[in-house]
């Protein structure tokens, strides 16, 4: 079978290979009618574009690298879905790399993506990451980078995040208005801005409403079900026990609910629980889990749009752009105590 090339397509349509190439790339100089003819013929003849040759000509691979901390967390899958919507609409493919919350694997992932000559990188950093030289080096090579969700300030790298401080404040405020008096907090690793901001939002709400506060009601977890269980064990061992908890994310909140159920502590009557991220499982728990929705698909779309703009202006030093999305509170059974 004859290999179908743009020259073969050009002969069939009695035009030039250059016109065929521009039509396949939807160049504005080519009429819509010609584009339709070229695309229809290419599909009919099962034309396969030579991506290597195309990349050599354009200097672009039309591939984006995306690094996520964990594929087991539905939050990241939903963000990637948003990224793909915009990427596909603009002719880009995605290389997805899971770091397993490891700085070592994150560094290897960046190296792998650079070796694949991706046109840009989207990344949510691992909870182990404290050294960012791998990203600084990639930035020095001229590769556009955008953080999403978990970002690091001071690197001159653009980001798309939720307003973590505001979301935490609102969640804590809700627990206060539901009549809980001693509200605790399960944090994440506090070297990460995302988790530190949520703790500060919690503290600000407690202070604004003049709520009683104790350092014993702060438990630094590691973003896991087990840390949520351990936190409840700690809180219930105290002389002055909390009667509610705002958890930094839903897995810690899930652990909290499990341990409260194990200890036969009624939720929300005796103990309120509020999470963060609105994971898919949250609405299916008993009781269902109140949580902060992070507008994941919108976050993915915004991150990809921002990366596209950086790639389009690659020759000009772009100012660092930081986009902050509004959190949405989802009220469910775990925090809605009936106050008599």
Offer a quick outline of the entry.
It contains 12 helices and 12 strands. It is of the alpha/beta class. Strands 2-1-3-4-5-11 form a 6-stranded parallel β-sheet, sandwiched between helices.
Strand count: 12
Task: Predict the CATH topology of the largest domain.
Answer: Rossmann fold
- Would you state the CATH class of the largest domain? Alpha Beta
Model regions low in confidence, pLDDT < 50 over at least 5 residues: none
User: What is Rg?
Assistant: 25 Å
Helix/strand-derived class?
alpha/beta
Query: What strand order characterises the main sheet?
Result: 2-1-3-4-5-11
Q: What fraction, in percent, of the residue positions are helical?
A: 40-55%
Strand content: 5-15%
- Straight-line distance between termini: 80 Å
Tally of alpha and pi helices: 12
Mean pLDDT score, rounded? Answer: 92
Q: Please identify which CATH superfamily of the largest domain we are dealing with.
A: Response regulator
Quick one: biggest sheet? 6 strands, parallel
Q: What's the number of domains?
A: 3
What characteristic shape results from the CA principal axes? elongated
| CATH architecture identity of the largest domain | 3-Layer(aba) Sandwich
* Order of helix and strand elements from N to C terminus: HHHHEHEHEHEEHEHEHEHEEHEE
Overall description:
With 340 residues, the protein is of the alpha/beta class. The chain has 3 domains: 6-49, no CATH class; 59-163 and 295-326, Rossmann fold (3-Layer(aba) Sandwich); 164-293 and 329-335, Rossmann fold, CATH 3.40.50.2300. Helix content is 42%, strand content 15%. The chain has 12 helices and 12 strands. Strands 2-1-3-4-5-11 form a 6-stranded parallel beta sheet, with helices on both faces. A 4-stranded parallel beta sheet has the order 7-6-8-9, with helices on both faces. The chain has a two-stranded antiparallel sheet with strand order 10-12. Helix 7 links the parallel strand 3 (120-123) and strand 4 (145-148). The protein is elongated. The protein starts with 5 loop residues before the first helix and ends in a 10-residue tail after the last strand. 42% of the residues are buried. The mean pLDDT is 92. Keywords: DNA-binding, Transcription, Transcription regulation. Residues 4-58 form the HTH lacI-type domain. Pfam families: LacI, Peripla_BP_3.
């Amino acid at each position: 079978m004859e290999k179908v090339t743009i020259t073969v397509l050009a002969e069939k349509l009695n035009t030039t290979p250059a016109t065929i190439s521009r039509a396949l790339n939807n160049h504005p100089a080519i009429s819509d009618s010609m584009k339709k003819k070229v695309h229809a013929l290419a599909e009919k003849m099962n034309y396969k574009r030579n991506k290597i040759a195309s990349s050599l000509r354009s200097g672009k691979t039309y591939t984006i690298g995306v690094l996520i901390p964990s594929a087991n967390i539905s939050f990241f899958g939903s963000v990637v879905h948003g990224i793909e919507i915009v990427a596909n609409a603009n002719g880009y493919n995605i290389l997805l790399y899971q770091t397993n919350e490891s700085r070592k694997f994150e560094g290897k992932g960046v190296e792998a993506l650079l070796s694949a000559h991706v046109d840009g990188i989207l990344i949510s950093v691992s909870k182990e990451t404290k050294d960012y030289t791998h990203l600084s080096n990639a930035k020095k090579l001229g590769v556009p980078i955008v953080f999403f969700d978990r970002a690091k300030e001071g690197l001159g790298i653009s980001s798309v995040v939720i307003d973590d401080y505001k979301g935490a404040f609102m969640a804590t405020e809700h627990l206060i208005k539901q009549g809980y008096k001693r509200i605790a907090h399960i944090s994440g690793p506090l070297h990460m801005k995302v988790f530190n901001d949520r703790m500060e939002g919690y503290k600000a709400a407690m202070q604004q409403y003049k709520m009683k506060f104790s350092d014993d009601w702060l438990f630094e977890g590691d973003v896991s079900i087990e840390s949520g269980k351990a936190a409840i064990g700690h809180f219930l061992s105290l002389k002055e026990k909390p009667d509610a908890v705002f958890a930094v994310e839903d897995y810690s909140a899930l652990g909290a609910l499990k341990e409260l159920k194990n200890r036969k502590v009624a939720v929300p009557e005796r103990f309120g629980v509020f999470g963060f991220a609105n994971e898919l499982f949250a609405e299916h728990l008993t009781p269902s889990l109140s949580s902060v929705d992070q507008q994941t698909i919108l976050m993915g779309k915004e991150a990809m749009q921002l990366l596209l703009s950086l790639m389009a202006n690659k020759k000009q030093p772009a100012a660092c752009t930081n986009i902050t999305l509004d959190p949405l509170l989802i009220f469910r059974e775990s925090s809605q105590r009936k106050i008599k």
